[in-house]
Amino acid sequence: MGKDSLVIAEEKFKNVEIKKEENLFKKYCENNIKKRKRINLIVKTLLFVCTAFGVLMLIILIGSVLKDGVKFLSIDFLTNSASRIASRAGVLPAIVGSLSVIVLTALIVFPVGIGAAIYIEEYMKPGKLKEIVELNIANLAGVPAIVYGIVSLAVFVQFMHLGRGVLTGALTLAILILPTIVITSKEALKNVPNSLREGSYALGVTKWQSITGVVLPFAMPGILTGTILSISRALGESSPLIMVGAASYVTFLPEGLFSSYTTLPLQIYNWTSRPQPDFQNLAASGIIVLLVVLLGMNAIAIILRNKYEKKI
Q1: Helix, coil or strand: residue 243
Q2: pTM score
Q3: Contact (Cβ atoms closer than 8 angstroms) between residue 234 and residue 102
Q4: From CA 289, how far away is CA 297, in angstroms rounded?
């Protein structure tokens, strides 16, 4: 009986110790969870404050632009050329110049960017060379825009003698946004399931037919998303265009690929650099026009992207 009592006592002692350890572990877990919840709440609050601050500043800026610029918007403002008299100034050459440059940029960069992404993702063998190419493309995406302007001035204007017209501006913006388009297109192609490729190969098609008929349509929504963002960036650029000779004061429409031109950001910059209050208000009106053009082009691109998504 003494031995049995000792065994029972030991078991009770062990159970008590186990319960103590369980309680301590439970308290530790509860405290850890509470701590994590507090940290999560703090982080969420900070992120919300940052987001709210950014949205608030955006609303204030847009409100200020609308307040100063809406009253100067008119048919005459949209159809007149630049003038040294504020009441006669308009943005027609800037609108036509921006659309000419950005459309030509899209025609150049879209096939080149997608072609480069297809080659890197579908044809290039894994290895050091591919890693070096991808690393350099990623680095080029972070290069300041003014650097591309300097390179374009040296290559397109001074070496190739293309002049300072629309074509040079489009080529400059094309090399500016090309790395971004290659990266986004490559990621979109990478996200295509391998089962789709294997299924197309099982039907006896060639690799190129598989890419053009299966892989590319599946990746097109992601490709168009990257292209939309890149072209939006290009539409608002001014520094590289200044380097390659885009004018900030033009009173005529561009007549060809080698014609002089201006763009909306440059025209807005020209007006903001003048001390007269009327030109400051014209700059606000120009910003509204730029936003409308940008949103319109994005809307068209989004419609095209949604059509591809529905087909998939």
Answers
A1: helix
A2: 0.80
A3: yes
A4: 12
